[in-house]
Each structure stands twice: as structure tokens, then as C-alpha cells.
Specification:
Blueprint lengths: L1 E3 L2 E4 L3 H12 L4 E5 L15 E2 L8 H11 L6 H21 L13 E2 L9 E2 L5 H15 L3 E4 L1 E6 L8 E6 L4 E6 L2 E4 L20 H8 L4 E2 L4 E8 L9 H4 L3 E3 L20 H13 L8 E4 L4 H8 L1 H11 L8 E10 L2 E3 L11 E3 L4 E2 L12 H20 L9 H16 L7 H15 L3 E2 L1 H18 L13 H25 L8 E2 L7 H4 L1 E6 L7 E6 L13
Parallel strand pairs: 1-10, 2-3, 2-11, 3-7, 11-18, 17-19, 20-21
Antiparallel strand pairs: 4-6, 5-6, 8-9, 9-10, 12-17, 12-22, 13-16, 14-15, 15-16, 22-23
Helix pairs in contact: 1-4, 1-10, 2-3, 3-10, 5-14, 12-13, 12-14, 13-14
The structure holds flavin-adenine dinucleotide.
The site of flavin-adenine dinucleotide (FAD) has 46 residues, from α1, β3, α4, β8 and α5.
Length: 559
């Protein structure tokens, strides 16, 4: 089947739905496509909150500086200025849409402290902020009559003549492959957490849109910048929100010492995530951890605060480790959480490919640079979701409807059919996926070096060769997740390779990229973005982009 819309948004997380809402408001015929029901998107798992400088004594300039310092000066400052100055109006709009933010005793919107922030500017709904936002935006897109293709899995972007003109997707319910043509496509497919094991991300966060855009020639930027969150639960890797430390929780080593006093004497547990993750890694490596973990201690916060402001993580620790955080500290370790890099865009979400826009975690504007501050990602999805929706709507007024596409759809149908009939050779997607994740966590994690990165690259290339013989176990059409798992693994391998190339290229330590063989930040040579383009069989092409500095020249970064 071939369908037509002006704007097609790929992804129904916060970025995708906010983009769709803006496009609908602008009068475009807009559709959203999502491989899961919209409210099952990973945005719904966001716990801690969303940043904006609204309160007395705060300003968007202070928020901008905190963000830029947090990014280790790799963020583009013009983009950060836009994000932080537009933040207050976006939060207030969400409130007016119906998000029930926490209010203080005087009835004002209440905040909590978050890592790397010099003011408490994180607005929240308990520890289910993402869920509250996501449901509200879903209401809004239904109200705005946005067409939703739910449980449609995108397999390719349609890009004739160097422009992006639609998406091919499997309707999971029927197994049918369809082409959804558009004058503009906004890729908002979220992160790629599952390229690492363990990760805080949902199992669906497999980097699909990043790989799809990359394959049609879109440049990827800052891919080496992978954020490890300091507090992920022992074993499962579930997130224990930074809000716990924002509310006053301590980090302890096996001697009961608040070790952050040796690494970040001013900000302690609320230093930037890269700083805290490195500190924990050193404590564990030097024998002051407990079974590969450190302890998150909330006991002094008391049952009332924990049960009113952090009920979800209380339940998770109880369910998965049998630990009641009211009475006992919780073992945690740094775990893969977020990617700062993604599809390179301008401040309106436009990629260099005409008709291709991107927003949210899969995009790189770049507002997070080398390290994202907690609660700045939900903000990024809303500000740049909105801006990309607006820009795409303007763009579609200038272009004609796309050309046929039947041949392209038929080619995709043949490709998927060939995949379905590939014989079983003993290689399974599940084994490869686990090997990939483990390799990335070991070699491309908190600390990196040339030898380990080269091993990771050789390892991913070997996995790619083995991937070519992975068969799809289930031959049926309806809800064939065996097929989508195999397709996801292909996306993940492309994302992993780009990440490793980025990490090998950047010969310095900055933000989340800590090279033990190049331990210093080197502004003279590396105050620039690494940009990676698809090599189509050969190695990727590597290029650089200057960092935009407006008011904040790079300084030494201490917390
Ligand atoms: C556990 C957790 C807690 C977090 N807490 C916070 C927080 O408190 N504050 C904060 O600022 N940030 C937080 N973050 C980060 C933040 O939640 C995410 O970066 C953000 O929500 C990403 O939103 P998104 O719209 O870009 O993508 P997502 O919400 O991940 O949505 C992606 C969408 O793309 C669709 N999709 C993907 N691939 C395909 C495909 N092949 N075909 C069709 N559709 C596809 C999916 O179905 C989904 O609808 C947290 C992240 C995690 C994992």
C-alpha cells in the first residue's frame, strides 16, 4: 500500500508527538508512525524531571552556562541559548495542557535539585515525570487529529534524488510492508541504549532512526559521547533516578565514606554524571566497591519523603533486589543511559538532506556536547520537537508531492522476503545482541583506550559478518517480532560502529569520552565535533565541525 501525508513523524515519544502537534497546528496533514503504541515509548520511563529557569534568582543564562559547562564545552552555544531561553514557555504550556507538576506548600510549581545544576530548576511529577508528559501529549495529538500508525515498524527511508520523501514500514498487525510518502520526514526514534548491556533504556531503544538516516547519507555527530548514569541498579541496570541524590541521597563506598568529597568537593553527589560515573569506576577498580557496586543511601531522607517523591524507585529496588531503601542502602553502578550524539541537525531540526528532519535523543543539535545534564533531555525533546515540527511544516509548502516510489517499495519487499527465507545456520540475533552489548560495555564504556577501541571495532565488524547469516526463526506474518529483532540488530551494529569510530578519532578526554591514553582535554586540537558519514560497504567517512561559541569561552571544569 502507498499512503500520502505532508509530514511524517517517525517515532511517538515526546519529541515525535511534540513535532506532530506543531505540524498539525501549522495546518499540515501529519502522521506519526511508531513501532510501539505511543505511550509505550521510552520517554514514559523518564523519572526525575525537566529543567527550566523559571524561579526567582535563576535565569536562562545561568541554565545555559550550567549546560555548556556540563557538556565540557562541546555543546553549540547558539543551540543551548535557544533551548534554555525557550524552556520556561514550554513548561508552562505543558502545565496548561494538563501535566500535574509538583507544587510547593504555597501552591507554586516546585523544583528539585539535579546534577551539574547550580540552581534547583527541575520540575517534576513524583518520579514518573516522563509518563505524565507522554500521556498528556498523546491526548493533544489525538485532539489535533494527527493520524497515528501504531505498531508500524520502519525498515527504510525513501530518499530519491538525495531528498527524503517517506518511510517504508511493516504494519505489524498484518505483516504488510507499506510506503508512507511525505514531503518531509521527522526522525524522532529515540536513543540506542540497548547497543550496550546492561542499559537503563527500554528494549526498544535500538537506534533504528539513527541507522536509517545514516544509511541514506545523513551525517552523525558526537557519536562517541555515550552517557553512563551513576546510579543504575545492581544486576538489572534499572535506573535509580538522579532525583534521589537531588533530594539528598549519599553515595558510599565499602568503608561508608562519602567518596565524592575527594572528586567533587563542592557539588559532591550532584556533580555532572560523567564526573560521578568516573569516580565510582575508580572506587570500584581500587577495591573500595562492594561486589562491583557502590551504595546509594537514602535512609536519612525518611519514609515520608521516599514514598511521596520517589515511590517508583522504592518499588523497583524492592522488586528486583528485595531491598527496602527506607531501611537499607541500595547497590548501584554506572550504566549506559543516554547518547549525546545522533543525526546532525541545525537548530530547526533540519539535517543536510532536504526533507529530512530529526529531533529528540536520536538527533544531535548539539545541546548536550560531551555530557548531558540530567533533566535536560526531556526539555530537548520538547523544544526541538516543536521547532522541527514548525520548520518541516514551512518546508513542505515549498515542495511538490513525491514521485511514485513503487519500485522502492518493491525493492524493500524483496529484501525482507529474502531475509525471511534465509536458512538457519545456528547463528541467532539474541546471541549476537548480547555479545555486542557486552563488548560495548567493556571496551567503549566509562574509560577507553586505543587498544580496547580497536578490539571493539574488530569485534563489531566480526559481528556484522556473522549477522549476514542470522535467520528469522518465525516465518509467520502477524506480529513477527523475530523479524523486527533481526532488523533492530542491523541498526544497532551500524550505531555501534559509528560510536567506536568516533571514540577512536577523538584523541582526548572530554565529557563522557575518557581516554586513559589521552587523559587531558585538548581544546587546541579537539574543540570540534566529530562527524561520521556512511561508507556504504567501506569504512565511514570522518569529518569535523567547529563548535559554536557565543558568550562562554572554555574554562577548566571543576565541581
Ligand atoms: C529510565 C530513563 C529515565 C530517564 N529520565 C529522564 C529524566 O528524568 N529527565 C530527562 O530529561 N531525561 C530522562 N531520560 C532521557 C529521556 O527520557 C529520553 O532521552 C527522551 O525521553 C527520548 O525521547 P524521544 O522522543 O527522543 O524518544 P523515545 O521516547 O525513545 O521514543 C522513540 C519513538 O520512536 C519509535 N521508533 C523507534 N524505532 C522505530 C522504528 N524502526 N519504526 C517505528 N517507530 C520507531 C518508538 O516506537 C518510539 O515511539 C531518561 C531515560 C531513561 C531511559
Amino acid at each position: 500500500m502507498i499512503l500520502d501525508h505532508d509530514v511524517v513523524v517517525l517515532g511517538a515519544g515526546l519529541a515525535g508527538m511534540r513535532a506532530a502537534l506543531e505540524a498539525a497546528r501549522g495546518g499540515a496533514n501529519v502522521a506519526v508512525l511508531s513501532k510501539v503504541h505511543p505511550v509505550r515509548s521510552h520517554s514514559g520511563a523518564a523519572q526525575g524531571g525537566i529543567n527550566a529557569a523559571i524561579g526567582a534568582g535563576d535565569s536562562w543564562e545561568i541554565h545555559a552556562f550550567d549546560t555548556i559547562k556540563g557538556s565540557d564545552y562541546l555543546a553549540d552555544q547558539d543551540a543551548v541559548e535557544i533551548m534554555t531561553s525557550e524552556a520556561p514557555q514550554d513548561i508552562i504550556e505543558l502545565e496548561h495542557m494538563g501535566v500535574i507538576f509538583y507544587r510547593d506548600d504555597e501552591g507554586r510549581l516546585g523544583t528539585r535539585a539535579f546534577g551539574g545544576a547550580s540552581k534547583a530548576r527541575t520540575y517534576f511529577v513524583g518520579d514518573i515525570t516522563g509518563q505524565a508528559l507522554l500521556y498528556t501529549l498523546y491526548d493533544q495529538i489525538l485532539k489535533a487529529d494527527v493520524k497515528v500508525y501504531e505498531e508500524w515498524f520502519a525498515t527504510a527511508l525513501y530518499a530519491p534524488d538525495g531528498t527524503c520523501r517517506g518511510v517504508v514500514a511493516i504494519d505489524m498487525l498484518s505483516g504488510e510492508l507499506n510506503l508512507v510518502r511525505a514531503k518531509a520526514v521527522i526522525v524522532a526514534t529515540g536513543g540506542m541504549g540497548r547497543v550496550y548491556e546492561p542499559s537503563t533504556n527500554a528494549l526498544i531503544c535500538t537506534g533504528d532512526g539513527i541507522a536509517l538516516a545514516y544509511r541514506i547519507g545523513a551525517p552523525l555527530m558526537d557519536m562517541e559521547m555515550v552517557q553512563y548514569h551513576p546510579t543504575t541498579l545492581k544486576g538489572s541496570g534499572f535506573l535509580m533516578t538522579e532525583a534521589a541524590r537531588g533530594e539528598g541521597a549519599f553515595l558510599l563506598n565499602k568503608d561508608g565514606e562519602r567518596f565524592m568529597q575527594r572528586y567533587a568537593p563542592k557539588m559532591m553527589e550532584l556533580a555532572s554524571r560523567d564526573v560521578v560515573s568516573r569516580a565510582e569506576t575508580v572506587e570500584i577498580a581500587e577495591g573500595r566497591g562492594i561486589d562491583g557496586n557502590v551504595l546509594l543511601d537514602l535512609r536519612h531522607l525518611g519514609a515520608d519523603l521516599i514514598m511521596s517523591k520517589l515511590p517508583q524507585i522504592h518499588e523497583i529496588a524492592l522488586d528486583f533486589l528485595g531491598i527496602d531503601m527506607i531501611t537499607d542502602p541500595v547497590p548501584v553502578r554506572p550504566g549506559m543511559h543516554y547518547i549525546m550524539g545522533g543525526v546532525k541537525t541545525d537548530v530547526n531540526g533540519a539535517s543536510p538532506i532536504p526533507g529530512l528532519y530529526s529531533a529528540g535523543e536520536c538527533a544531535c543539535v548539539s545541546v548536550h556536547g560531551g555530557n548531558r545534564l540530567g533533566a535536560n533531555s526531556l526539555l530537548d525533546t520538547l523544544v526541538f520537537g516543536r521547532r522541527s515540527g514548525k520548520a518541516a511544516t514551512e518546508f513542505v509548502k515549498t515542495v511538490t508531492s513525491p514521485a511514485s516510489g513503487e519500485d522502492f517499495l518493491a525493492g524493500e519487499q524483496r529484501r525482507i522476503a529474502a531475509l525471511m527465507t534465509r536458512p538457519y545456520t545456528g547463528e541467532t540475533h539474541a546471541r549476537l545482541r548480547l555479545e555486542l552489548g557486552t563488548l560495548m560495555d567493556e571496551k567503549v564504556g566509562v574509560y577507553r583506550d586505543e587498544a580496547g577501541l580497536n578490539e571493539a571495532l574488530a569485534g563489531v565488524q566480526a559481528l556484522k559478518r556473522r549477522y549476514a547469516s542470522v535467520a528469522v526463526g518465525d516465518k509467520s506474518r502477524i506480529y513477527n517480532q523475530a523479524l523486527t529483532f533481526v532488523l533492530e540488530l542491523g541498526f544497532m551494529l551500524d550505531c555501534a560502529e559509528a560510536t567506536i569510530y568516533g571514540a577512536i578519532t577523538r584523541k582526548e578526554s572530554r565529557g563522557a569520552q575518557s581516554r586513559t591514553d589521552y587523559p587531558q582535554r585538548n581544546d587546541a586540537e579537539w574543540l570540534k565535533h566529530v562527524v561520521i558519514r556512511y561508507g556504504d560497504g567501506g569504512p565511514p567517512k570522518i569529518d569535523y565541525q567547529p563548535v559554536t561559541i557565543t558568550k562562554w569561552p572554555p574554562q577548566e571544569r571543576t565541581y
